[in-house]
Please model this.
Amino acid sequence: MRRTSAGTRGAAAPSGVPDQSSAEAPAPVPEPAPPVRQEKLRTEFPFELPRGYVDDSDVVHKHGVMRLSTARDELVPLRDVRVQENPAYLSVVLLGRVITQLGTLPMVHDGIVENMFASDLAFLQDFYRQINAEGHTRAAVHCPHCSEPFEVELGGSRLGES
Model:
C-alpha cells in the first residue's frame, strides 16, 4: 500500500471521501420567506340609521355608507357662510361631504343631512368620530397557531371604556 503525504496538493482522496482541498461544500439555499399579506386600507364603512331619512316621496332610507374624511373635508366647510354664522352647522356640512350612499338616493348632500331626525344626526356624528378621530376599535389579526384571520375588539367605543 502506498502512502501519500497529507500536505500534498492535488493528491487523490481515498475512495468515498470528498476532496476538501479543492472544492468547498455548496452553501445551503435559504427557503423563500412566506409572502407578506398586506391588508387593504378600509376607507368606507356601512351604517344603518336608527330611524331613517324620509324623502319627499315618503320613502325611508336607513342603510348608507360613510367614507373616511380628508383634511379637505374638514377645511372646506369652515369657509361656508352657514358655518361661520352658526358653528353647530359644521357637522351637517361635513356629514353631507362624507356620506357617499344613503338608501336609493342618487346623491347625498348637506340639505339631506339637515332634514334628518335628531337621533339619526347624533348617530352619524358619533359614527364619524368613531371612524375618523378615534379610529375603529376592531383589528384584523391572524391566529398564531392556524393562521386563520379574525377580528378582535381593541377597546370601548368611547374614551375611558374598555
In short: The chain has five helices and five strands.
